[in-house]
Structure formats: C-alpha cells, structure tokens
UniProtKB/TrEMBL annotation, chains A, B:
Belongs to the glycosyl hydrolase 65 family. Substrate binds at residues 359-360, 602-603. Residues 324-690 form the Glycoside hydrolase family 65 central catalytic domain. Residues 701-760 form the Glycoside hydrolase family 65 C-terminal domain. InterPro entries: 6-hairpin_glycosidase_sf (IPR008928), 6hp_glycosidase-like_sf (IPR012341), Gal_mutarotase_sf_dom (IPR011013), GH65_N (IPR037018), Glyco_hydro_65_C (IPR005194), Glyco_hydro_65_M (IPR005195), Glyco_hydro_65_N (IPR005196), Malt_Pase/Glycosyl_Hdrlase (IPR017045). One of its GO terms (biological process) is carbohydrate metabolic process. Keywords: Hydrolase. Residues 15-267 form the Glycoside hydrolase family 65 N-terminal domain. This is Glycoside hydrolase family 65 protein. It comes from Nonlabens ponticola. GO terms for molecular function: carbohydrate binding; glycosyltransferase activity; hydrolase activity, hydrolyzing O-glycosyl compounds.
Length: 767, 767
C-alpha cells in the first residue's frame, strides 16, 4: 500500500540504507524547525540527485502576482507565499579534491538517518568506499536551537576509515535561492550586502515588495580528533554566496569535524540596520556556550515540551511513533511565542499551499495548543485573527459586503486573501464560523472570559454581520437560506444550504448576541467601546436574530438526517467500499465534474458540525449521521480521519476508530496520500492529538469541568496523555485494568471520569 | 451611454476627425477579411500611439500551454489559439527624411476613415500640415481580394498639397510578431527563410508545435501622377523583416502612389515547399490584372454576396447600417468554402477567446449561412463537427465517459478542448445539444436528409450515449436527472437539472432514435455501416429511451413555469430594472459568488429552449416564461438580445423587440459592452440577422414550407430580406401597407404568409 521504510521506534524517526528514491520523502519527514525557522532535511554537502531544497523563516513572505486562466471579480491581485529563504546549512566537502556527492557513489554503506524527537536533533551517518584503499565515515548532526531561535548548529565529522587523505570543507551561505512554487518566476529576494570577516560571514537580503530584511550568517570551527584547529580565513564570494575554505590532512583513523554555527536574524525582530549585530550576538552566544552545552540546552528545552505534551502508548510501537511525530512537528512549527505567526499547513517542511493560515488553526490546532501549552499561546492564536479583523472587513467589502461585515480569508499570511479559486475563496465561507467557534472553545477551556470583551466580541459582531448579509430570504419556504457555498467537503462547490454552514451561521449570530448581553452586564466599558466602534444598534441585532431563528436546515424526514446540502439525496449513493480501486483516490482519477456530481465526501462536513456541536445532538443522532455519511467519505483530506476516529470511538466502534487513528497519525510517515515529498501535513497533526485525547480519552469540558470518557483500543496495553487545564495539569492513564487521572496542580480540581464526578486533590491519584 | 462616433450611413462605416482615443476601437470596427485571412484596421505607416496590431490567417493556430491557478483533472494541457500572423500591410513613409506618424502631429485635417461594405474596401484619408509651408494629403485604400483569397491590395497615395518634398516609401513584411494573448510568452512562430529579389519579397515562417507554414509576400509598384515609375531594388532585411525602399521627388500638386500587392500562402492549401511559387503566382495574378481590375473584381464579388444576403430597412439609417455591418462582417469571416474552417467569436478582428469554434456556430450562425448561401456552406459547417467526432469522443473519455460517448468541446480549433474553467469546460455540456439541433435544423431547412445517414447519425449516436451516461437516476423522485451543469446562462455554475440542458438531452436521444429508425428503413447500407461502427444494440437504445422518457424537468406548478434549475425560486427575484446603475454590468461590478447566488441571467437559458423548440410550446407558455425570465436577464452576453428580440416580436411587443434589435445590431458600432477595442462580436451578428428574419419577418419552416409571420417596427417604413430555400430565392418585403413575397426560382413554391398558405410561381409576387 503505502511506503514503509521508516523504522518503528518510540522516540526517533529512522531510516537505514541508502535509497536515493526516498531522498525527497525523507527531506520532508526529517525536517527540523524551532518555531522561528525551519528546514527540510536537505544534505549539507552537494547532492546532485533529485532533491527539493527548502529553508524557511517564519513570517517572511512574498506577495506573488495571482495566476489564473480566467479572472473573476473579487480575486486577490496578490497571493502571499511562504518563501524559500537563503540556505545556511551548506557545507561542500572535498576528499583529495573530489567533491563529496552521495549521488555519485556505488559503495555507500551503513547509511542511517535519525530524527531524534526526544532531544530535537537530526543525524545522518554513512560510510563511503571511495576506492579499494580509501574509505571514509561521515556523521553529521544538526539542530535548530529552541533556546536561541536565531541559531542553527551543525556538527559535520569525517573519519578516515581507510587510508590518508586531504579533507576540505567549504561551509557557505547562499542567498541565491528561488521558490519551486512561483507564479511568474519573479525574483523574491534581493541580496543587499555580503560581508565576510574574521571567519564570519553575513548576507543581508531583502524580500521584494514586502521588504523583509533577513541576515543569514555563519561561523565555522575546525576540530581534529576533538582538538580545536586554527585555520586561515580564505573565502570566495559572488553576488549571492559566501564560501569559506577550511582544509586539513587526515591520517587513517583520524576524524576532522567542522562545527558550523549559522542562522538568520530578521527584521521581524530587529531594526534592519541592526541585523548584522544581532547575528554577531547569536554567534557569540554559540561560541561561548560551545557545541556540547548548546546540545544540552536543546535536550532540556525539548524535555520541557515533552513533559507537558507527551502521549505514551504501550504495546503499539508504530502508534507511539506516530503520535510523537505529530506532537514533535507541531512544536517545531509553532511554539506560540509570537502572535504574528501561525501554523502553516506544511509548516517548515514545504512550500505548498502558499500562505500560512487556514481555518485548520481554529478548528484543529487550537485545542492542541490549549491543552499542551500555557494559556497565552492559544490566546496569541486568537489575537492573530483579531489583529487581522480590518483586513477581513476589507476582504468582505471586495465581495460586496458592507457595514463592517467580515469574511476571514481562506488562506492568509497577513490578513489578505491568498487563494484564488472562486469556489473556495468566495464560497468556502464556513471558515468564518471556525473563528467564532475558536473563541467559544478557548473561553470554555481556559475560563478567560476577558478575551471576549477585549477582542473577541468585535470579531463576533463582524462575523454576525457577514452571516446576516450573506443570507437570502426564500419566500417559497419562508426561511433564510445561504446560497452558493462550498462546505468543508470541498468535493461539492456552489451548493445551496450546506447544513454545516447554515448551522454554524445561525450559531455564530446567537453566540454573538449572547455575548453582547454578557459584556453589557459585566464589562460595561468594553461594551461601550465596542458599540461605539461598531455603531451596533438593537435594530440590527433584531435583524440578525430574525435570520438566525429562521435559518433553513436541509433535513430529510424519512431518513431522519440533516442533508449535507439541498438536493444531496438526488445523487446516486453508492458507498465508497463499492468503488473499484482503480478509481481511487478520486481526486487523482476523476475529472472535477465527476467528483462534484458524485456523492463522495472529501472530509467531515455534516459530521464536522456534529464534532463541533457534540452536545447539541444525541448519540443516536450521531450514530445515524455517521452511518449515513461516513460510508460515502473518501477521506482525501488530511483533516478527515481524525474527526471520524473521534466519532467512531464515541460510538464504541473501536476497530474503526483505531484504523482512522493510524491513518491520521502515520499519514506522512506511511505516505498515505503519496505526496509527502512536497512536505508534511502539519495542521492535521493536531487532529491526531485530538483523536487520542478526545477520541480514546473522551476528553471534553462539561460544566466547566474536564470530563473523560475513556476507551482503550484493543491493540494497546495502555496509553496516557496530559491536559493543562487552567494551569492545573491532569495526567490521564488508561490501561486495560483501570483509568486513572492524576493532578499536578495547586488546588483541588473537579473532573468527570467515565460519567462520575470526582474531586482531585493536588498530586492525588483517583481511579 | 455608449460611443457614438460612427457616422450613420447605409453602406459604409465612417469616422471623421482624428481622435487617437478611438484608434483601437476603429481598428476593430474597420477590420477587413476575406474568409481566408483578415486584419484589424491597423495603419500601414508607423503609428507610435496606442494600437492593437492584428493579422490572422484562417485555420492557423498555436496550442498554448494551459495556464491555471489550480489544476483540475480533465483540463486540456494545451489551448489552441488564434495566432497573430506576420504583418504584410506595413508601409513606412518618410517625408524629407522624417517618418510619417499620426501620433506626432498637431495639425491633422480632414481625417476620414471609411469601410465600404458594398464594395469591400477600407479607405483612410487625411491632410497633415508638416510646417507652415509644407502640407501633404494622404489617401490609402486597401482590400483583401475575395476573388483570389491569398491576395491583399494596398493603394497608398501622397499628394504634395503645399511645397515640394522628397517622399520615401518603405513597404515591408514583418514576421516578428507576437500575440497579446499568450500564456507563457512562448514564441509562436519561427522564421525559416527570407528572400528578396526582383522587387518581390517572401518570408516563410512556421508555427511552433503545429507546424503550419505560411509564406508572407509582397511586391510594390510606384506611380507618379498615375504614371508607372521604375525604381531600383534596394532592400534591407533582418531576422524577421524585409523592407524595400522606394523614393521619389514631388513638386507641389504632384501625387506619388505606392501600390502594394501582398498576402499569404499557407500550408493549409499548398505543400510547404511550394509556398513561394504559390506566392509568386498570386503576385503575377495581381500584376496582370492591375489595381483597377482587382478593385472591380472585388466590387463584383461583394455584389454577388449582397445580391443574396442584403437586408434593406427604410426609414431608419442606424438600423440599416447596423444590419449591413453584421452581414458584412459575417461574410468577411466565413464564406463556407473550406470545411476545415469555422466562425471565431472575434473573426479576424481580435485574438480574444482563443479557439475559433463555439456552440455559437450551431445555434446562431448556421441559420444565417443556410439562408444566404448555397446549401453546401451549412453542410460544411456540419461536416466540420463530423470530422471532429473522434476528438469529441476522446474529450469525453478524458472526463470518464466510455463506449463512444462524445462531448464536443466548448471552444476548439482542431476538435480538442481549448477552454479551462471547470464550470464551463466540464459542465457547460448543453453545447452537445446544439450539435444535434444544427443537424435537425439543417435537414429541416434544406431537405438534405442524406446528411443524416452519411454523417449526422454517428454524431447523434455519440451524443445520445453521452446524455445517457451523464444522467443520474434519482430514486427520490424516480426520474433521471442531470446534476452539476452550467446552462447557457453562465451566471449559474454547477447547478442541478438545468431545464434547458435536461430538455435538449431528452430531445437529442429521441431525435437519435427516430433517425436510427428512418435510416434503417431508408438507407440500409449506411445503417449497417453505422451500426457496425458503433456496435449499437437495441438494448442500448432502450436504455437511452428509459432515460429520455423519464427525464426530470424542474417545474413550478403554482407559477406554471419551467425552472431554470433546481432551487431557482429560492433566490431573491428582484427585476433588473430595480438594480441601481452602479451595479451594472454585474460582471464588472460584482464578485463571482454574488453573481452566482443572484437571480440574474446572462443570456437566454430557459428561453433559449423556447427559441429552439418554439413549436413545442404555446404562445401563452412563451409569454409566461418570457415575462418571468426576461425581467431577470441582464443581457451581458452578445448572444442575448437577438433571441429576446425574436421572442418579443412574436409576442407583438414591438418596442421591446426593436430595442433589443438595436442592441444586437449596433453592439459593436455603439460599443454597448465597452470592449470593442478587443475585436467585434462576430458570431452574435448572425443573431442580428435572425432577429430581423425570424423576429420581424417571422420566418420559420412549417411542414417543409417557408412560413412568414411579418411585423413592421413602427420606426421603419419598410424592410426586406431574402431567403435561399432549397435553391429557390424568396424576397420578402414588409411595408406598412403590405407584405409581399417574391420568388426567383425554377419551380413553384408553397409558402405560408401570415397564416395563409400560398403557392408562388417563379418570379410572381403575392400579397
């Protein structure tokens, strides 16, 4: 079926044996990042085989001119794109004058690559028989410091296993890079200044149009058998590259090591004229600490993350590896330190999907960050959208809305829309609902009600205005309808009355009105500020409620189910199980019109509503809808299996839940979608976390209390996870004999465990 | 409102006064063509002002690589494009060494441009005061020979009105041209060979990928006050241009004339190695005839066309000019001599819309050509599609259809699809119906039933198969449905059960089955050939009929109308008349989603069905549907006003019919859509013809007889038109006192005039 070359291991991603055909997949899977920057696992040394080079600086983007076949009014003129950044990892290696290049040898032995998730480093080792009497062993380890997030560290060692030889290292930084995913072959970067001095090198480049300044820097040290060796400072440079040259002679058995400190400083965090000084400070930091201490700092920093975020699974190594890989990648991508950043669907593992922020953040990522980080991290994610409210209002104005109605973009970097398919950009408007759901979810979870008067209410009002204006009164049925939308199931376009969209629209308005009342009574100053700002009147609120209370919901009485959209039952409803393999995945095998007129569902749509609004429906209703829709679902979105895993678990269909869990947790490791070369599916990794915590752990908030309804898959001996609930940490252990919840907190905590209310005392264990 | 600079005239398009802002509009409106080639009315001499250069050779195209933002399975990889061809009209002029360039003078007087439609030539004249004591008069006339369709003739005269001066002409041919409308800036042409000898010049170029060879040629003669002047043969050439140099001295009052014979020979009509000889033959033809005789031949050829095609209108000069402009442009674009050619939506007046052939040909153009040309012309247009049947089957296969089902492309040059919006390319499938309707219409009109066994039946079978496979059985209503389509009204996408599509699908199947029976009984050999070829069985035919007889038709009982599509009545139905001017045209003012969810109709959709299948519905039904749909129609397609004009006339709403008539007939002359700079709307010009002949003339075929139900707009004193009905020519005169029909035929002819059956004798007049 899918690829299976990754070796199961509880804490590491490992591949063994040199297979060039997996290079691009491994470049994605072994990617490293520290929230501020990241890289695909490209080789340091020259590689002339097939490769996809990628280095990224968080928050640095380029607005590429939109490319379409046929322009539609309302398309954004520019499309903010994740930018491939200058390369700082490069170290060309020459053995007796011959360039080292894995693509050129027949005799590569003991090839192993390991991404150590526990400690946060990437290591690659291999031997090469250069000739009958000459062999070398290479070992290179690198990491991007969590502690000092402008710093990368590379330790590149070569041992003369057989024979003597001259080794030359050429560490370089290269700002002459391009995006694979460019619409018009624009130059995204201008190189402004190159400086090389005292074994240090700096290139300051600027992004065109957006004028982000980034200084890429490096300094290298040479060691021979662990002894520091001074070397002269010869360098080469052209318009975009600075290259240092470091050579030494090895006798058989000796090891030469190049230690390279390198990274970026960017104008997001410094004045642009101070970037070089900031880079020098980063180098000093590194040199003063030294490699061993920097590595120890890295291990400690990851230990802190794991202390809170780890999930253990006993008895199923692949499942264990899968969940840790997901947690690890999420933390590599976003650490919540900077409210200007967000979680791109590919993180730092590829360029695809352009902009960085989708509704994935609100629907999938926030629960993970709420539970595994301090509360401010989730607040930062909400604040990101609050800061972009003006742009969301502008975006709606471009589409003809008025009076402060907001439509958040489908894809964005800076608040502007960065997507250009009309059926998505203009019609996949349910995303607005996820913004409000995230606020609701955040407040429910954290109890931080202040967020609503401070920021959330303005967002909710703008979105309520959107839904009100976007609805159409149908005199035929005397109801309000929402026509011409694309729901979460993107395999339907321009449908009328997508149930999920109508439901969340109604809910958004009602939520907003409820909070207007609450803020009015409890936060009078904010109330007056917001009412002043928005010129909201009681009359307007009434007109919203008229829409919300009379929203049409497509429903089939005979079946007793909500319909995904008007006319859904006119389709031929043939279960996916009856589709021949040759037709799948349908998004690769079928033309678009065939997909559209089929009944097949890309990802949870009606069931997404049942997931969000679990408490609005009975278990019987869930079961009925799950049984109707899941068999028609092809799960061709990475966001699909997790929701279905959770719901299957809640319906006690543990085998199905387990199967979906494997699919979501090992989506990239096993390359289910045959596209891991382009990067990993970062945002859906939060869905994997949810499928354990909310699915098997049955976690939810009930009456302000954490509630767990646990279920152990039969493939597992036990599993455990943690929840940071309002700064009280709950550890849930589920085994075949018992479920326990342990509290590390400073005060007692009420919880509901498998239906029973318990009061936990700090550090106590209850069963 | 719209532009009004074209001077009303019965036989000519005229502009007076030099206004650079109208240059691009005039380049479109004054375009000339002869069916085999055509040009925008670009100036011969240098013009550095704003211009859109265009020269076109019929049938020569380039497959440009498709450009889309997001690829959808099923998109064609290439997009056949009308090609801008080498320029042969160029004549640079120097007066005392200064280049003549209308963009550079303040003193341009008596500027006049005339397109003489009666005689088929374009003339431009103006005076320029170069200095206080130097003035010239320019007069240039050119035409593309109908008689010898590889030949263009230019007569370029300069008179020294004031002062003496040296005149230098530099006639040139230039193969270094590009398309404005290119996706990737590919080079469309390669220049292969340039030859200049004996006052003649030839450039042979080849289109990339498609390997069409075109030889562009010229020869010039110099005259002084009408006397032929020998001149030396100095020439200049670079990689893509050959330029001759011809100079003479003029004294005040003298006139220098450059006569340039130039044109193309192409590999469509000659072996590619014979192109230069063919060009030489064209030059010999021209030189032997001389300018006056060539012009006379042109006048005679156009007289022949007008003898059959002219429509006269008394009492309304603008209406008269409008209809003649439409008839003239149609004849410039397509003369029916070559079954490989078709009628591009811009003809030879611009590049827009890429490929050459739309369903416009079948739905709008065929009636015009049937009535105004010999029968073989319409047959050629049908044959064009028959020849492309294999490609239409391939096209359907790309979309997942099988068993010889055909989907004709939305846009094509060579039978391959050349459009790439999924909602059009994959979903605007009603075009298949127009193919069958054209066959039906042709046979009904011409009585040439043989076309069906010979060619038509294969097309009908492939299309019946498509409709059968494209239908979906809805168990809910126990009917067959057609889901996910775009109807003729392209302001709705991906709708279910577009009534027009469902209706024509049902009709296509029933037509096909009827003709299978007829061919079986009357053309046994063809029957066996076709059945053998298609492996058609009785069982398959039954399965088609099951679909056709149970096709779902959306209908509202309360209103008594067929619904444009499922759910149409859920829209807010606000008449166009209540839309504020600021919102129109909606395709420029509104975002696409807003257009889609609105009720507004781009062009006739349900009413297109009522137009095609007039006899299936009562006048009361027409009235009801017209009253429901027309008020919601924005007529933002050039194909819209004509159908509505015809229907308004049939409903005796003469003012409305007249208003629509003006809009269709003067669409380009008055630039209603503010885009005439890009070229004229050629195919809709056939609709203009229909709105007189079928609307005011009430022409249709009833029981094998021409029937006329005439109505005179009150703005007209009278009008007349001709119909070639099976080689019998009927002239219909409608005045306020009487309607007469005159027959120029070889046998008596039954007709129906205003409800009464009459038998016309050859050359008799009946009232």
């Amino acid at each position: 079926m899918n690829q299976e070359y990754i070796i199961p291991n509880a804490w590491s991603i490992i591949e063994k044996g040199w297979r060039p055909e997996f290079v691009k997949s491994s470049e994605s899977l072994f990617s490293i990042g520290n929230g501020a920057m990241g890289q695909r696992a490209n080789f340091e040394e020259t590689y002339t085989g097939d490769t996809f080079q990628g280095s990224y600086v968080a928050g640095v983007y380029y607005p590429d001119k939109t490319k379409v076949g046929w322009w539609k009014n309302g398309y954004p003129e520019y499309f903010a794109k994740v930018l491939n950044a200058p390369n700082f990892i490069g170290i060309d290696v020459f053995i007796d004058g011959e360039a080292l290049d894995l693509a050129t040898y027949d005799q590569v032995h003991h090839y192993k690559q390991e991404l150590n998730m526990k400690e946060g480093w990437l290591e690659r080792s291999f031997n090469i028989e250069l000739t009958d009497d000459k062999e070398i062993a290479i070992k290179t380890r690198r990491f991007l410091s969590l502690d000092k997030d402008e710093l990368g560290v590379i330790n590149y060692s070569i041992t003369a296993v057989k024979g003597d030889m001259r080794i030359s290292f050429q560490p370089y930084i290269d700002a002459g890079i391009t995006n694979e995913d460019s619409n018009w072959d624009d130059a995204f970067w201008e190189v402004e200044e190159l400086t090389s001095k005292d074994h240090q090198a700096f290139i300051r480049s600027r992004t065109n149009k957006t004028n982000f300044y980034v200084c890429t820097y490096m300094q290298s040290e040479l060691y021979k058998d662990g002894e520091h060796v001074q070397y002269a400072d010869p360098f080469d440079q052209n318009d975009t590259v600075i290259r240092h040259k470091v050579a030494t002679q090895l006798e058989e058995g000796e090891t030469a090591t190049l230690l390279k400190y390198a990274g970026y400083t960017s104008s997001l965090n410094h004045e642009h004229f101070e970037l070089m000084d900031a880079a020098k400070a980063a180098i000093s930091h590194a040199v003063n600490k030294g490699y061993q201490q920097l590595l120890q700092d890295q291990i400690d920093a990851w230990a802190d993350i794991w202390a809170m975020a780890d999930i253990t699974i006993e008895g199923d190594l692949k499942a264990q590896q899968g969940i840790r890989f997901n947690i690890f990648q999420l933390n590599q991508t976003y650490l919540g330190k900077d409210a200007r950043l967000n979680i791109g669907p590919k993180g730092f593992t590829g360029e695809k999907y352009g902009g960085s922020t989708y509704w994935d953040t609100e629907a999938y990522c926030i629960p993970f960050y709420m539970a595994t980080k301090d509360q401010h991290v989730a607040r930062n994610l909400l604040t990101y959208r609050y800061e972009q409210l003006d742009k969301a209002i502008e975006n709606a104005e471009k589409l003809g809305f008025s009076n402060g109605a907001a439509l958040y973009p489908m894809v964005t970097m800076n608040g502007e829309e960065s997507h250009n398919e009309w059926e998505i950009t203009f019609e996949e408007i349910h995303r607005n609902g996820a913004m409000v759901f995230a606020i609701y979810n955040y407040v429910r979870y954290t109890g931080d009600y202040d967020y609503i008067p401070e920021m959330g209410l303005e967002v909710m009002i703008a979105i309520a205005r959107f839904w009100h204006q976007r609805s159409t009164y149908s005199s035929r049925v005397d109801k309000y309808m929402i026509l011409g939308v694309t729901g979460p199931n993107e395999y339907e376009n321009n449908v009328n009355n997508n149930w999920y969209t109508n439901y969340i629209a109604k809910w958004c308005i009602e939520q907003c009105v409820e909070h207007i009342k609450k803020v009015k009574s409890g936060h009078e100053d904010d109330y007056h500020r917001v009412i002043g700002l928005t010129s909201l009147t009681d009359g307007e609120i009434s007109s919203w409620l008229e829409v919300a209370h009379n929203m049409y919901m497509p429903y089939d009485k005979e079946l007793g189910i909500y319909l995904q959209q008007d006319g859904f039952l006119d389709k031929e409803l043939i279960p996916v199980s009856e589709l021949k393999a040759v037709h799948r995945p349908i998004n690769q095998k079928w033309s678009w019109d065939r997909i559209l007129r089929s009944c097949y569902i890309k990802q949870a749509d009606v069931l997404q509503g049942f997931y969000f609004f679990e408490d609005h429906f009975s278990k019987e209703q869930l079961e009925k809808h799950f049984d109707f829709y899941e068999p028609l679902t092809v799960h061709e979105s990475s966001l699909s299996p997790c929701v279905h895993s959770i719901q299957a678990a809640k319906l006690d269909r543990m085998d199905q839940a387990y199967e979906f869990y494997l699919r979501t947790s090992r989506l990239d490791l096993d390359d289910y979608n045959k596209e891991v070369e382009e990067g990993c599916h970062i945002t859906s990794m939060a869905g994997t976390w949810m499928s354990i915590v909310e699915g098997f752990g049955g976690f939810k908030i009930v009456n302000d209390m954490p509630s767990f309804e646990t279920r152990l898959p039969k493939q597992w001996k036990s599993f455990s996870f943690k929840i940071n609930f309002r700064d009280q940490i709950l550890t849930v252990n589920v085994s075949d004999s018992a479920t326990t919840v342990q509290l590390q907190g400073y005060q007692s905590q009420d919880i509901i465990l498998n239906g029973k209310k318990l009061t936990l005392e700090p550090l106590a264990v209850n069963a």
